[in-house]
Amino acid sequence: MPISGEEYRDLVICNSCQWAASLLRGSAGYTACPVCGNNALDTIPVGDHEAYTMMIKNRNVEIEFRKD
Ligand SMILES: [Zn+2]
Fold this sequence. Notes:
By secondary structure, this protein is mainly beta. It has one domain (9-67). The chain is 0% helix and 46% strand. It is built from no helices and five strands. The protein has strands at residues 9-13, 20-24, 42-46, 50-57, 60-67. The strands form two sheets. A three-stranded antiparallel sheet has the order 2-1-3, with no helix packed on it. A two-stranded antiparallel sheet has the order 4-5. The chain binds zinc ion. Zinc ion (ZN) is lined by residues 14, 16-17, 19, 33, 35-36, 38.
């Protein structure tokens, strides 16, 4: 059974303020953090059959990927 209509997503994370967003592939995306202006965002490709859990502890972002 297909999972919704979504294709690839990219997870974008700011290492400076922990702002994060999930983008549909092909969307405009971000070149800088809209919150703090940091322009060194991390982009993490996420496959459409992967689920992830994001945990923010202090100033660290931990992402756990799971395969269904
Ligand atoms: Zn930021």
